[in-house]
Batch of 2 targets.
Target 1
Amino acid sequence: MGKVLLAGVGATPIGEHWEKSLRDLMVDASLNALRDAGVEKKNVDAIFVGNMSSGYLQGQEHLGSLLATWLGIPGVAAHKVEAACASGGAAVHDAFMAVKSGLYDCVLAVGVEKMTDASTDQLTSALIMADDQEYTAFAGFSFVALNALVYRAYMDKYGAKQEDIALFAVHDHEHAVHNPLAQYRRAVTLDAVLSSPLVADPLHLLECAPTGDGAAALLLCSEEKAKELGLKPEVEVAASALATDVLSLHDRDDLTTLNATLRAAERAYKIARVEPKNVDVAEVHDAFTVLGVIHLEDLGFAKKGEGWKLVKEGEIEAGGKIPVNMMGGLKARGHPVGATGVYEVYDAALQLLGRAGKNQVEGAEVALAQNVGGVGGTVAVTILRRVR
Amino acid sequence: MGKVLLAGVGATPIGEHWEKSLRDLMVDASLNALRDAGVEKKNVDAIFVGNMSSGYLQGQEHLGSLLATWLGIPGVAAHKVEAACASGGAAVHDAFMAVKSGLYDCVLAVGVEKMTDASTDQLTSALIMADDQEYTAFAGFSFVALNALVYRAYMDKYGAKQEDIALFAVHDHEHAVHNPLAQYRRAVTLDAVLSSPLVADPLHLLECAPTGDGAAALLLCSEEKAKELGLKPEVEVAASALATDVLSLHDRDDLTTLNATLRAAERAYKIARVEPKNVDVAEVHDAFTVLGVIHLEDLGFAKKGEGWKLVKEGEIEAGGKIPVNMMGGLKARGHPVGATGVYEVYDAALQLLGRAGKNQVEGAEVALAQNVGGVGGTVAVTILRRVR
């Protein structure tokens, strides 16, 4: 089986897009990816759209046909993929599978979410659908509250301090300053983070990823198709893996590790034939500061219970042990939930393409993107590599 | 690339399952498929769940992880697939792709929908999400109204009479009598159909598929895995194809043919290397009587404008030119929207397995199932064949 090549990437800025509809966002991102690849849309033969809440928030399902229609390529195979906040990563996985299967040669993986039109109540309802409605939501938990439990459990178990964990948000904001697509292009101090309002104790507002509107797209091609089109993509999708865990925290033995990350990472490393030490730059799903820290451990970049040390000691910066979320991460680039997994791969790809500007990690050859659905009910891991 | 084998099938009865939740239904169907295959659940490595409206109707997304959890196999790759009423067929397509890709060996394709807890208003809102919310729904169309337009256009263009088209419902009900899983196990007369209340002129109530609760599941295996497990499946998934068309009727040149059916069927016939004349029995997506007739034409079983003649002349019965919807079709077996595409493949498989009881088409070797999303925005076509 030949390589799955990343022929082009595209995205919209993340923010409050009052002037753009859900369809506008996904069409914009897709056209950007096609333009980036230099591929005419007529070559696309399948589209997978990652999205979580378009039915509930926009009253719009059937996004596959909708996007194919508005891209002007009705006829292609297309459907929506949903795995809560891992919908984007799951769409990337479908696109990877599609090319690997030999059934498709030129596939768009798109992620889109439009959240800022909704009220806070609507968003709270939409997001808790990522967990078990009949057990967790009926018991009164919000999605933030579940992550606050994880935060407490982590600090208790490993003796980590909030001021160390909260540094993850400071790191993200610092880098978002130089990302033209980021939702919050401003630095924040640790003091600002820790004095921001409590959302769910111990989570402060500035430790939580914001809601936003945005779409991102990737164009994946088979080697044969790339050759036929005269493309020479510099990056391949070396692996895409998807794994689940029990949906809810109340069924887990340990709140401080995500089994789905362990499983998806193990598979992805195996498929790509790399180890954590080979990864030059990573995008991790820091929906909440503590999750960013936990992911560093689960992905094999730090020992269990010591992820926060990497952050504190500057090891997640360029030149450090494992540069992470160099474009601002969920916290500052933004987190339009169903789109996030695709933005992460987009940001990882920029590093390998040498297009990350002031956030560039020099000489990056292997990049990893990790996308989490719910509180780890699903995790998608994508590994990109420069084509040798 | 080896064959994709259908190792087992399972389903729940369709009806008003007040006593069962969405999760119960999909777990029941999945366990039935595993039991049917004689495969232990630990062998499953991926699950694709077709569902349209769980977010809007149950406040529950993230069905992939939910099902993996409640099946007791957290860890597997899993996500939800949505393509309106073609969600089930799209999930089958993902499962087919997954095995073809070589990434997975033993995959569950599951379809589930629970509709009867909702009010008529909620269902009307949920179903129109299959079309373009900002154009079609905002203009006041219900999903039934769109299909009524197709009905008028078909009768006008081809001079077909409603009493001939409505016979499709009579046919479906006749066969549902002998289907233990069917929602309406009773025959209806043509007179009863035509004197039932008008829902959207000219569509009478008994020309429209009902709403219902249900789940169906298929277990797909690679040849290698089947061998490893000592299985000898009698049926293979010879092809699965997915195609789109412009989402809405207002963008189409012709309301009386579904381009997505033409495209998906062409691809599926090509992959399976069969022609319409080789198909021994078919399941078509008769959400409304007129659609059943149109599908007969678009799938190549009748000339354009003459599908109704097949129905009138008894050619869709056992022994006829192309036996269709032998287990009751959407009209009488039932139409839990996101599950329907999987039920269709289930019903087609029963024929090849010789398990269709009084509805059996003797000696059937090749079966086709067609699943439509929206008014043809997406169509999935699956072709099954007895393993030679």
Target 2
Amino acid sequence: MIEPTLSSPIGVFDSGLGGLTVVRSLLEDLPQESLIYLGDTARVPYGTKSREAIFRFAEEGSAFLLGKGIKLMVLACNTMSATALPELAARLGVPVVGVIDPGVEEAIRVSTGGRIGVIGTAATIGSQAYRRSIQARKPEWLVFSQACPLFVPLVEEGWEETEVAAMTARHYLAPLLAQGIDTLVLGCTHYPLLLPTLRRVVGSDIRIVDSATQTSREVKNLLARTVPENPGPASPMRCYLTDIPPSFIGVADRFLGRPVTHVERASLTP
Amino acid sequence: MIEPTLSSPIGVFDSGLGGLTVVRSLLEDLPQESLIYLGDTARVPYGTKSREAIFRFAEEGSAFLLGKGIKLMVLACNTMSATALPELAARLGVPVVGVIDPGVEEAIRVSTGGRIGVIGTAATIGSQAYRRSIQARKPEWLVFSQACPLFVPLVEEGWEETEVAAMTARHYLAPLLAQGIDTLVLGCTHYPLLLPTLRRVVGSDIRIVDSATQTSREVKNLLARTVPENPGPASPMRCYLTDIPPSFIGVADRFLGRPVTHVERASLTP
């Protein structure tokens, strides 16, 4: 492990490319910080895999980023945040920020009636991490969860504003709407791209919380409290991927909202 | 590598669980043969990944199955058959059967007008393997291809007979239908589960070719010509998976059409 300094980069780790929605917020909120992105695109998605597999992948990726001398790691993936965050935070030697607690805190801030809907991958929802985090703060609040395994492939196919996406969203969200939720937490970094469709399905009264934006604010607060901010200027973001499939460019650019440059292939296994 | 004998098993290798549709046909056509299944469920899906990644995964899985003493390997995955079959066949030391040529031969047998539609993953379609295989035999025939990345997640979610699946199929198949195809080849081992929906979308006049059934016949023919058949009785199928997620049981049983037993975790990387 390289000893971090003021100008050390922040590491952002995701199973694939969805974490680039978090990078997008970080670039806006912390323009002077250097970023290193790691996407495990050779094994993506994590959300349909076992807890044991996700944990092993999270360890391998963290070791890779530590080897690059990061001063703070963002687990920009709900599946990993739900599964591996406490263990990684306890032994990594640098602060680790996940995407779940920031989303939960915002949901608690905006909820009008204490009835929270959470959507995410099968692994995130199965972990009950959102429910536990909300009810640790608000034991009397009700949390209704729904796994939405088709949302990630729909977004990756670029179909987020099609009638197929709307019909899929109506199907997944019907049980949450029937429970009278007042707030919907997007528990997956792919879902912000579905926002216009989700808004049409849930109507205008329900608050929608996007954890990407909240996570970036949490990183900013944490830097202010613990790790010194980079005086700047930032180096261009380096993007490491374990696989670079032909579809990468279009998908990555849509998530980031600008072209992704400085892409290198990484190997996480010996 | 263990020297194969009469009673050595047949290895069946897939990126995930879709290859169990091929196993289903093998169990019917070759009940006296022992089978070993390998599904790389830790890295599934392959079809959205790069050619280099797929090739490496194919090599690692083949080495695992050779280590189990197989006498013949079935690449029960269109993505791997399209990408890695010739190289593996040239150096594996046991016969290798893919799923593409058997499907192509059946399409040529049943086509009424030499206008073939092929659907598959992005990697399979991008490889042009079906087009090349068909036009090597029938240079004047026309081949129209369409990648359908949402079909695999729809099947794995159990949504294959929903209106969402039908709408998705209408979208993907419209360009093929507009070209007046007379035959549709299902170039992915997940797609047989979509058969009722695809039949409704394409109507009753178009022939639909399922390569799982054809591949099983090709294995039977090859055994008759080269590797002696097992005098029997077969051992129960051993099923090796690189990850065993909670959703495994339901999905695997639907593909195989009966309960999957004897499941073990395998590691393909050092």
